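Reopening: G-protein coupled receptors family 1 profile domain-containing protein still failing for me.
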Amino acid sequence: MVVDEFNATADCFLPLNLSCSKLYTSTVVYVLLYVAATAVILLTVGGNLLVIISVCHFRQLHTPTNILILSLALSDFLVGIFVMPVHLFILIEPCILFGSTFCSLYNTVVFHLTLVSIYNVALIAVDRYSALSMPFIYSKRVSVCLAFIFTAHIWILSLLYNCALLYFSNYFINKCPGRCLPYLDDTWSTIDLAVAFIVPCAIIVITYLKVFFIARRHAVAIRATFKDKKRMHDQNNSDSMKSERKAARVLGILVSVFLVCLIPFNICTFLIDELGKSFDYVMNSMLTLLFLNSTINPIIYALFYPWFQYSIKLILTRRICRVDSSLINVLSRGS
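Support: Ran it again with your exact input. Result attached.
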């Protein structure tokens, strides 16, 4: 999430009236914009809160993969709480100026949560690859505690990295008074591009290509198992493989949507000169797409995870308030 020094400095001298002239004058339009923004924020916060409650409450969902999903849902939830309201307000009210302290804190949160999300998705990809390529080793060595340790390290290291990145790049010096423009110099922008985009995206793409080929081999094995009519335990093994393939496919959709939302923003950072005065508008649009990924993720869970659909039903009907509700078999009832 980078804007170079030239653009950050040059954009400060754009006449403020130029952007203010684009404000909507119709009260109806203003109301519709605020209603839409509120709906997106509530959907983001509510959807991810349901994921968090489901995974935390039901013991059967305490699996390594779901801990990674929980971490991703938490970062998406915080995006809905702290990032989206400010971003959407800036889009609707471009003439509103914020102080340098507020902008520094806001962009620090944006940098941190975005990096956490990226590496959560990368870790999910690695988790699925490990489960499919080394099922016996995975089941014995990968535990909920280990998944929690990895996700905790992602959150801590991301915070330390972004604080160091913004401090040593002199980001906290007021480059553009009144405007919340992210700023990094050329050296640090290159480093951040590698750390926050190239490396995790390479991990995600390469890992899921391997997952795809493994899933194909498993599909052939499953067909051969049923064709030969082997013993029942072989059928149970094939069912387990089929379940792993289904989980990998759903998480593959999650990863694909994430990349679709992430890549356009990073491409725009290379088109600074070509975009010219429309750079701000295009970047804000790409940021909106990136943040909307936090809204889309719970929808993906609701569409493809029967256990999440059943968990929502239990939560909304307040059955989780009953004694021992955490022991409800949401996986079998939700399938």
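The domain at 5-333 is CATH 1.20.1070.10 (Rhopdopsin 7-helix transmembrane proteins). If you still see a failure, please send the error message rather than a screenshot.
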